[in-house]
Amino acid sequence: MKNIKELYKYELARFEVQKKNLRRLWNIPQETAELLYTLVLTKSPKHILEIGTSNGFSTFWLSIAAESCDAVVDTIEVDKDRFKLAKRNLKNRKNIIQRFGKAELIIPELIDKYDFVFIDAGKINYIDYIKILINKLNNNAVIVADNVISHYDTVKEYLDYIKSSERFDSVTLNIDSGLNIAVYKTDIIKIKE
Ligand SMILES: C[S@@+](CC[C@H](N)C(=O)[O-])C[C@H]1O[C@@H](n2cnc3c(N)ncnc32)[C@H](O)[C@@H]1O
User: Fold this and answer.
1) What is the pLDDT of residues 14-27, one digit of tens each?
2) Does 80 reside within a domain?
3) To bridge 157 with a disulfide, which of 59, 127, 165, 187 should be the other Cys (CB 3.0-4.6 Å)?
């Protein structure tokens, strides 16, 4: 990751300053950003969806990974000030579509299908997001959900849903706030008795 950090040192320094000086940005920690970057490179998605842009820190990492596979990043933010700040922070990135509004209202209007989703918005709504997203996921789409350990009680319904559905395989990683990584299957493998 050394080369990437060097290449984007000015952009990353700007995020660092905002993190120190502004409240309520709730950016993912650096380790999670690097994991997201690596997962996108591994998956090579064509279309990425992020729920919860904030000032665009995680969006930035998704975007630089997306560049290597010609992917587009759709990102949704409901807070006007953070949306505008992200606009400024991401103005040089060419592969990002920023959407302003409630994810619950925007997702049903999206016409594309996604291969990679990062969920990092209202924790209580994770369950709603995944239910309205289901028919917008390609086979083997990867869904990364943040804060599944730090906000376990609030996201429990989401985790129970993912774990009980035969369409998802998933694993929870105990890094930072806890990440659940799920893979969505359009075709279910039936095991013969
Ligand atoms: C944890 S922060 C996102 C941090 C960002 N992913 C990062 O690491 O830089 C969560 C963001 O989700 C936004 N949010 C909360 N509920 C939302 C909703 N229903 N629709 C869209 N955005 C929402 C909040 O305004 C907040 O900026």
Assistant:
1) 999 999 999 999 99
2) yes
3) 127
Atom of ligand 1 nearest to the CA of 57: 9
- 147 CB-near residues (< 8 Å, 6+ apart): 120, 123, 155, 177, 178
Q: Is the CB of 119 under 6 A from ligand 1?
A: no
Residue 143: beta bridge partners?
A: 117, 182
Q: Check pocket membership of 36 for ligand 1, CB cut-off 6 A.
A: no
Name residue 85's amino acid.
L
Supply the range of the domain harboring residue 109.
2-184
193 found inside a domain: no
In a domain, 95, yes or no: yes
Q: Output the CA 191–ligand 1 centroid distance in Å.
A: 39
178 lines ligand 1 (CB under 6 A): no
CB 146 less than 6 A from any atom of ligand 1: no
The domain total for the chain is 1
Kindly indicate the confidence band of residue 189, based on its pLDDT and cuts at 50, 70 and 90.
Answer: confident
pLDDT band at 9 (very low <50, low <70, confident <90, very high): very high
Residues 61 and 33: beta-carbon distance below 8 Å: yes
CATH number, position 31:
3.40.50.150
Which amino acid is residue 111, in one-letter code?
A: I
DSSP 177: T
